[in-house]
Amino acid sequence: MSHKVILVKQENYDQAEIDLAVRRAVDCLGGMAKFVKPDNKVLLKVNLVAGHDVKKRVNTDPAVVKAVAKLVMECGGVPVIADSPGIGNFNNIAEACGIAQAARELNIECAELKEPVKLNLSENYNYSFRNLEAAKLAANADVIINLAKLKTHGQMKLSLGVKNIFGCVVGRAKASWHYNVGLNRDKFAALLIDLYKTIAPNLTIIDGVIGMEGDGPTSGTPYDYNLIGAAEEALALDFWLCKFMGVELEDFALWRAAKAKNLSECDLNNCELSGDFDKDFRFKNLKIPADRSLRLLPNLPFVSRAMTSRPVHVPELCIGCGRCEAVCAAGALKHDNKKLKFNYKKCIRCYCCHEMCPVHAIKFQDGFLLKLAKLI
Fold this sequence. Notes:
By secondary structure, the protein is α/β, with parallel strands linked by helices. It folds into two domains: about 5-275, LarA, N-terminal domain (Rossmann fold, 3-Layer(aba) Sandwich); about 300-375, Alpha-Beta Plaits (2-Layer Sandwich).
């Protein structure tokens, strides 16, 4: 089976140009009418991780969301823009990043993903986790279009199409899943794939016009990838982008988890690349997050922590907002008057505190075995 991946060049967020680029990418897959029928309720699952200004390139750009919504409406579908941020008020976040304004301009709904329901599991898939829940709106949508942002990620190395579906998990339940899988990146990647395969978005479109490099998904810096990506199978799209970003597939936990499940998308020979990018293309001078863990030693708690980077506080940058403590699934840190105290024995190295800090006041420090390995 061949999985088609479309990558088209697009260098700015001019709405007219974005409209054309998104239409072209979707047309290469058969057109929006292939996915959306009249009166379908279509969930546009954006990446709305935090209330950052659009110029920081943290969230799916409103121009891309509008372009997709307009295609859906052309087909008679009813689009609903939605996500479930890990922390913070949904309405405030949607306003801050321009998503709410985009919804008003098109006179469509912008809704928080909430009210968790148990997902129906497929009989034709090898699950690593079986007690899966997601927001009712996602579970009941006629069509799901996954609108991801092209970013690096401090914990998982890259945040692309499959990772974006984790946002269908409601609010603080995300933190619970982080706690349940602990330090094991491959286990978390298996969870992401299980959720992705069960929620099963019909189409994935990735906003890579200006994405992020470095310590993403929120604390990195903007990077001009100059592309719009589209695929019916997000794993195939993610793995081609992984290659273009200069990351070896074996170093990407999502690929390792997919390989362990014997998924056909792991083999890029099964993934047909079309559009404006040659298969040997590579992004230049791209900053990928440093490896924050090693996978060579026994998976014991003490050893795992020694092999993994830990979060550390930068007090001179701290504004005392308390988001780090609020999002910590393990209860591993306490905030008091711009001072943080970490309990590293409890810390699961999910780096949610780093991800949610609005002023980059949490950095990383290598565990001593990881530090030693880098010297060898």
